[in-house]
Amino acid sequence: MSAAAVPSAGSPTAGASRGMLLMLLLPGLAALVITFLLPLIWLLRASFASSTVGAFSGGDWTAQSYSTVLFDPFYWRVTWNTLVLGFNVAVFAVILSYPIALFLARTESRFRGVLTALAVAPLLTSSVVRTYGWMVILGDRGVINSTLQGLSLTDGVIRLTNNSFGATVALIEILMPYAILAMLSGFGRLNAQLEEAAAMLGANRFRIFTRIILPLSLPGVLTAGLLVFVLAISSFVTPRLMGGGRVFVLGTEVFNEATVTLNWPLAAALSVMLLVLFSSIILLYQRALRALET
Amino acid sequence: MQGNQLLGRIAWNALITLLYLFLLAPIIVVFIISFDTRQYLAFPPESLSFGSYVKVFQNIKFISAFWRSLIIGAIVGIVAVSAGMLLSLALARYRFRGKAAVNFLILAPFLVPHIVLAVGVMLVIAPLGLLDSYPGIVLAHLGITIPYTVRTIMMSLMAVDIRVEEAALVHGAPPRMVFWRITLPLVRPGLIAGGVIAFLISFDEATISLFIVSVKASTLPTEIYHYLEYSTDPQIAALSVILILISVGVVVAVERLVGLRRAL
Amino acid sequence: MADHHVIIENLVKTYPGAQKPSVDHVSFSLPRGEMLALLGPSGCGKTTILRMIAGLIAPTAGAIRLDGADVSSIPVYRRNMGMVFQAYALFPHMTVAQNISFGLEMRGVGRAEREERVGRALDLVKLNGLGDRKVSQLSGGQQQRAAIARSLVIEPELLLLDEPLSNLDAKLRDEMRDEIRDIQARTGVTAIFVTHDQDEALSMADRLAVMSAGRLEQIGTPREIFDRPQTDFVASFIGAGTFFEGKVAESGLAVVEGLKTLRFVGDASVGSTVKLMIRPHRLLLANREGQTNSFTGTVEHIVYRGQILTLNVRCGDRLLQADLPTHAGLLPEKGGTVTLAVAPEDVTVVGQVAA
Amino acid sequence: MADHHVIIENLVKTYPGAQKPSVDHVSFSLPRGEMLALLGPSGCGKTTILRMIAGLIAPTAGAIRLDGADVSSIPVYRRNMGMVFQAYALFPHMTVAQNISFGLEMRGVGRAEREERVGRALDLVKLNGLGDRKVSQLSGGQQQRAAIARSLVIEPELLLLDEPLSNLDAKLRDEMRDEIRDIQARTGVTAIFVTHDQDEALSMADRLAVMSAGRLEQIGTPREIFDRPQTDFVASFIGAGTFFEGKVAESGLAVVEGLKTLRFVGDASVGSTVKLMIRPHRLLLANREGQTNSFTGTVEHIVYRGQILTLNVRCGDRLLQADLPTHAGLLPEKGGTVTLAVAPEDVTVVGQVAA
Amino acid sequence: QDASIRGTVNIVGFSGVFADNYQKFIIDPFKAKYPGIEVTYQQSKNSAETLALLTLQRADPKIDIALIDVAVAIKANKDGIFARLDPARVKVLEEMPAWARLDGDKAVAFSQDNLAILYNTDTVKQPPTSWNDLTDPKYKGKIAAKLGDTRGVILLPILDKLAGADYKQSIDPALDLLKKIAPNVSTWEPAPDCYAVIQSGEVDLSICWNGRAQYLHDSQGGKIGVAAPKEGSIGQTNTVGLVENSRNAEAAQVFINYALGAEAQATFAEKSFYGPVNTRVKLPDAVAARIYGSKEAQAAQMSLDWNFVADKYSAWIQRINREVIALN
Ligand SMILES: Nc1ncnc2c1ncn2[C@@H]1O[C@H](COP(=O)(O)OP(=O)(O)OP(=O)(O)O)[C@@H](O)[C@H]1O
Ligand SMILES: Nc1ncnc2c1ncn2[C@@H]1O[C@H](COP(=O)(O)OP(=O)(O)OP(=O)(O)O)[C@@H](O)[C@H]1O
Ligand SMILES: [Mg+2]
Ligand SMILES: [Mg+2]
Questions:
Q1: Structural domains for chain A
Q2: Furthest-apart CA pair in chain D: how many Å?
Q3: Which of A242, A245, D65, E100 could lock E109 by a disulfide, CB 3.0 to 4.6 Å apart?
Q4: How far apart are CA A166 and CA E48, in angstroms?
Q5: CA geometry: angle B71, B75, B79, nearest 5 deg
Q6: Which among D110, D194, D119, D189 is positioned nearest to D155, based on CA atoms?
Q7: Using CA positions, which residue lies closest to atom 18 of ligand 2?
Q8: What residue spans of chain E are helical by DSSP H?
Q9: Is pTM, for the whole model, over 0.80?
Q10: Pair type for strands C158-162 and C35-39
């Protein structure tokens, strides 16, 4: 049932190909439609409902939630906060992940498997537990503060958490594994021989890095950046807990409207807003990628 | 080796070590806490014991949820890989109208926050009578795992030289045989890697699961979530450590077997 | 023609998105048992033709007939052809023996017979003992031989070989050439092989088809191609040579600028301007100046090539290329003066120049 | 020797985990401006030697000296060598021109001069007009030429070429050979190039180093290697030939089983058993039977190769290979009887057989 | 024992310790009394999820009874999720106070968990006695207060009363007071939760629910202390509702009648430290003290007009978020 060598319509096996194509597409697409497309359509519908019940079963249509979202300056600020958070997290996560990804891509170490696994391990810890880990490190009486005080570098407490700094740091760490994975798969074009060729042409380590390694890995870096950005602006648990409730981003607002105030239409509208943000970022990203490739 | 080259190596290794330390810092803390004897999370531990681990293994809810998660994860892994394999074949080997749309549909779930999806998924699944059932949770997890399996399998598939498949055709293998004898074995690393990732995601997913399951099909993450609702004690840390060890074990084994990085 | 084994009629292939066809109205045919070499510069469409014959890509236009019947409705896997791919395309997850055995399995050949035939095929390509190796553990040359064995073992009716020897060193290449030639002669299989090595084409093929930019330039026996190239392109692509343009003063005599006159054998109407060619090895050291078709000049460059010595000799503003056998007595030296001569029948007309 | 540009002393390389060294006590040296060809079968260690000279891998033992000084402490990027990699290693994210320009940039050459030199380099390798292409848009041959241009443009002191012409067709290969030879002669750069094509090695290099399984078998001028191979391996690897074993009956005369006697020129003590070789093109058609070193037999196989005709002639139980020029008058036919003769000085002693 | 009534009652309600206690002290005794009635209890993450579930099943309810937050219950009633209880079947309704019988008996309050100030018994030697103590500068950066949910909505009327105002008129005075507390607040989202941060010493004070704190105090070595301010408190009110179109309405109302009864209420209060609603319940003094605090505090205990509050619910949370938290 392989489509193996049936790349074009005129091919000898083309007769079978239309049915075959359907067979190939159907199972996966069905699953995606049920668990992704339909929920998304519901989301759209819900965002135009007026009541909780309407959000589930139809009923009247109103743009009430959208006008709330669009005309409330608070949501504009939240959107701005979200973008800033996403940007900061993306930039730092990418910068910090890059060396690890590079290291993993090249190391010949016996422990490569373990090291790769360790780089991905943070993904598998409950976010609540991991957040608690960060509280221990960054808290007022946490590892860093007590170390600093122990060394008499400061006498007061340095506020490292329960603010957007804490949220950013924790998000960076939490999303780094994604960045590392994305970069690793994008580092395919790196090739030791290219570096050798550059060395033969007189490039020292620094220049090899800036002129060969970096440009070649840039698509992977961009993908990683995009992924982290998107995950960061849609996160809610970490900003909520690490931000000490002071960090208001779209994710936390969606969560809040959906589970605390039970305003599902508004939650849906905010989600749609988030999706619009994604889509524009992705479009920009694709532009950038195309520009890189030509 | 020249002196400054050696220096560069040392600096590089130090940098990597620091970054790893940052990446693993909260996990290290969690690891330490997991041995605390007190009944709440605090640092540093007062005294150390394996008590929390013992309790985790005695907690019937955790244990049964663990097996459920394992089964669900395995099914999700297998189904997601199968569907992903077929989708990847269609995308990698066919030109067809609407391919861009299909591609988008596969990419998009990466980018839509689970919290946004969760209620919608519940709503779609509920009328099918699948709430709190194995098929329901499996279906819900397929949407978020298929994108990963498609991605890894595609990577493997791209790496397969089409000419090899052509060679099989020329030498008398009908397309069905080409698939079973050539294509499938060649993308095995991608299949395994995709399966493992799908498994891990399903095994770890809480947000959507919370909306789908309650008692019968409750998974380990949802049990953890409920547990955290009324108690935060080192059991949670111990459980996290156990899960990490299991996952690291799986990842290492797969890396050994097929080279996960190639497929990622 | 009609009873030929393989008939290609007006074959055209334009890849999707390409402006120009990669194969452009190519027609030729092969009797059963013939070996044809497809020769031409990189990118001229050789592989494309093979792939159309195999059924791996569909022609844009034109027909391919096997034993008179159009093959377009026969799927690839029922065409019973063997093919050696340019990049081998061995199955990387199988051992060498499994690779070779694959086609037999597909044909439902029993295990015992399979093993025996695989063993013989391994012997044939000198890979005995390597049957259990993984493909990745073979050097490039060994892989190529495994690919050859895989295509031979199924005893196909038509054998398609895409640069089957490019990765072998001279020694092994010679051996494999003989081997393929032998098998082909013994089994009577029709074969088409692609190469860009003219020596290979000349020495292996019954006939050569020379292509350029998708078009068939000339098809003929090695001698016809080498000695009587019909186009400029073929003349310059196959073998080296020195080219002249000359006005035909009388039948078989052309006046060439910068030289005196050049006697040649061939049809050319008096008064027309013709393109003439002399192959380097047809230029011999002459005993005396002034002989017919003799040129005296200074040796500008000498290259020793084992069997032969290649000279570049400057006669006026022309550079003549001559290949002398290295054992031909006293050899000229760089800077020395030599006289070279060529027999009129070794001056070939390769084309007319439009006035 | 001491004032030679490149001196290689007892170089050894054992890859980690390998049992046998890939390069095994190899020593040779090159005067400034010489071009050396490294020749040998696949996997014999040619690339490994180049990479050690370049500094890309460290030798296990032995020394590499440039102008007398050990280079082990000079980092790769200050060695000022040009290298053409076997797989090109062009930078995929740069255009062709940017690739070529890279080395100049690293040397701080100004933009205007860079552009000019890149332009000239592109001309040189016949890639004019393709400077702005992405590397991926070039055919294999074009990529190889871009790699050559990139290594030449920096005017290195030492040029290392790893199979620089393997992907070009005969025509282009000839042209590029001349071009590289020319540039090398003009700039006086010392060059080492790797090839498995003996014709290339013979025609381009000042000297040839023939390797086998990590060891240097023989180093010498093309003529020395071709005409006076010192080992069995070299004799059979370079050029074709028919080999005989014979007992030396008297000085310059060996008794060969199945033939009569063979006169040869060379040192061999009476009573010893020697290995003798006759190159195919040294066997000529003889006028009459019974002449010294003449053999009469049946033509078993004829291959037309353009310039020459290769015959396999069976004399008793031996098969002699002879290359006759295609224009040598009346040519023999398959199945016919011919008499071949060889001059004693063309019968080469290639080794002793231990009793 | 009364085996004459048969049927199955499906309950959805809170999870965790609540579920354990409810099973043990309400459901099990009920089953002993009515062997003919089967009772299933399904845990729900929170009231929001319960509401979602009920909304989804409106056409064909699988659930008969929901235990749910009062604010959510009122919202549910707007969408017609619950059915009116039949006073003839649920006789115990007469014993319930007026404020507890919502929307004409479409949901009835059955327990209250008071908002309290928790403190770390190691670091706080003088437990706070008044809500006003929260403004004491010595607690700067030492308070955890999750106010973005019902806790905030309950705290506002308390603070309003402190400032001598009425929450039905304006909550501005409460917000002003809250702004004075804000500088002392270390986190508005205590992690992992508002109890653990006290136990671990991360903060000194935490504004949290009494019931769970009492439970932790008993079970984990008294590190958590509970201060019930003398100005009294307000409880988070849990209601029980009969689902509209329930197929087991009869058995369900038998259950509700039992669960709201004085006996069940008293037992549940003693075990869970949730305040009872049934007016006939008389708690022992020790139990009352642990639920409401001192006699003074017991006297000052307040109740809310939940219909009014539910209406303001999200507006108040929004004001807390925007005017207090976002600016601190
Ligand atoms: N899949 C394709 N899509 C578009 N153009 C193609 C494709 N394959 C080949 N071509 C183009 O068609 C032409 C002929 O290609 P083909 O592979 O037949 O050349 P070839 O003669 O085999 O060359 P070589 O000696 O380099 O293998 C080339 O110009 C090539 O660029
Ligand atoms: N990185 C390596 N690790 C281990 N063995 C190696 C490595 N590189 C090469 N070898 C081995 O060393 C030997 C020499 O390799 P090298 O690449 O020098 O051969 P070569 O003469 O260049 O061959 P070719 O003509 O095929 O390029 C081979 O047997 C090869 O298998
Ligand atoms: Mg080709
Ligand atoms: Mg090599």
A1: 72-293 (1.10.3720.10)
A2: 74
A3: E100
A4: 29
A5: 175
A6: D189
A7: D45
A8: 17-22, 28-33, 47-56, 70-78, 150-162, 172-181, 196-199, 210-219, 249-259, 262-272, 285-292, 295-300, 306-319
A9: no
A10: unpaired
* Dihedrals phi, psi of B162, to nearest 5 degrees: -60, -30
Phi, psi torsion values for A45, nearest 5 degrees: -60, -45
Q: Which residues face C160 on adjacent strands?
A: C83, C192
Cα–Cα distance between B159 and A44 in angstroms, integer?
39
CB-CB under 8 Å, D303 with C203: yes
Alpha helices in chain C (DSSP H): 46-54, 96-106, 111-124, 140-153, 170-187, 198-204, 222-227, 232-237
Q: Chain D window 113-152: which residues touch A at a Cβ cutoff of 8 Å? A: 150-151
A10 chain-C contacts, CB cut-off 8 A? 58-60
Q: With a CB-CB cutoff of 8 Å, which residues 235-294 of chain C face chain D?
A: 236-240, 279-282
Determine contact, residues C226/D306, Cβ cutoff 8 Å.
yes
Neighbours of E211 (CB within 10 A): 27
Q: What are phi and psi of C315, to 5 degrees?
A: -120, 105
- Residues within a 6 A CB radius of ligand 2: D 15, 18, 22, 40, 42-48, 86, 196
User: For residues E212 and B231, what is the distance between their CA atoms, to the nearest angstrom?
Assistant: 10
- How far does residue D46's CA lie from ligand 4's centre (Å)? 6
- Nearest Cα residue to B246 out of D298, E36, A120, E219: A120
Cβ-contact E303, E142 below 8 angstroms: no
Chain-centroid distance, C-alpha B133 = 21
**Span E235-243, average pLDDT:** 93
What is the Cα–Cα distance from D58 to D80, expressed in whole angstroms? 17
B172 vs C contacts (CB less than 8 Å): 77-78, 80, 103, 106-107, 154
Question: A9-59, pLDDT tens digit by residue?
Answer: 333 333 346 778 888 888 888 888 888 888 888 888 888 988 776 667 667
State the pLDDT confidence band at A192, using cuts at 50, 70 and 90: confident
At residue D328, the pLDDT reads 58
**Cβ-nearest to D106 among A193, A196, A202:** A202
| N residues, chain C | 355
- Which atom of ligand 2 lies closest to the CA of C140? 26
In the DSSP assignment, the letter for residue D32 is T
DSSP helix/strand/coil, E242:
strand
Whose tokens are 């220096």? That residue is B7
Q: Report the gap between the CA of B236 and the closest CA in chain E (Å).
A: 11
Distance, CA of C305 to CA of C307 (rounded, Å): 6
C-alpha separations of A290 from A283, A285, A293 in Å: 11, 9, 5
User: Phi and psi for B231 in degrees, rounded to 5?
Assistant: -150, 140
Distance D212 CA to ligand 2 centre (A): 12
Mutate to test the interface with A, among C13, C57, C106 (most CBs of A within 10 A): C57
* Spacing, Cα C43 to ligand 3 middle (Å): 7
- Grade residue E317 by pLDDT with cuts at 50, 70 and 90: very high
- Residue count of chain A: 294
Q: Would you state the structure tokens that stand for residue E55, as one six-digit string? A: 């909304």
Residue at token pair 């994108």: B147
Look up the ipTM and state it. 0.76
- The Cα B118–Cα D187 span in angstroms is 72
- For B108, the token pair is 């998009």
Q: Are A12 and C76 inside 8 Å of each other by CB?
A: yes
Task: Determine how many CB atoms are found less than 10 A away from the CB of residue A286.
Answer: 12
User: Minimal CA–CA distance to E127: which of E118, E135, E136?
Assistant: E118
The number of residues making up chain B comes to: 264
Nearest CB to A4: which of B84, B112, B169?
B169
> What is the Cα–Cα distance from A68 to E34, expressed in whole angstroms?
51
